[in-house]
Amino acid sequence: MNKLPASRFHLVFSLLMGVMMVFLMTFVVTLVNIGWRADFLQAWAKAFAIAYVVAVPVIYFLAPLARKLAARFAQVP
User: Fold this and answer.
1) Which of 43, 10, 6, 11 is nearest to 27 (CA)?
2) Which residues lie below 8 Å from residue 26, measured CB to CB, with a gap of 6+?
3) Per the structure, how many domains does the chain have?
4) Ordered mean pLDDT values, 10 residues apiece, the chain (77 residues)
């Protein structure tokens, strides 16, 4: 498998983190808000699609800031 160049790491990270975070959060929040009912998957898929489009740019632009802030509180090798 060909790997992407290192310059694409942050973009790939943002896309993958977005999928994982948004999948879990929209699933839980949709379940809490409407419960497990016949149209749950449709409602969850809509919430996922909207949240993913918002989350990826947020992750892309805020992850570097979050890393810098975390480094202030924790020892970084």
Assistant:
1) 43
2) 44, 47, 48, 51
3) 1
4) 93 97 98 98 98 98 95 88
Do the Cβ atoms of 29 and 47 come closer than 8 Å? Answer: yes
Q: Phi then psi for 75, rounded to 5 degrees?
A: -70, 130
Handedness of CA 48, 3, 68, 77 (dihedral sign): positive
Whether residue 5 lies inside any domain: the answer is no
Q: How far apart are CA 6 and CA 43, in angstroms?
A: 37
| Residue 44, domain extent | 17-56
Task: State the pTM of this model.
Answer: 0.86
Cα angle 67-64-62, degrees, rounded to a multiple of 5: 110
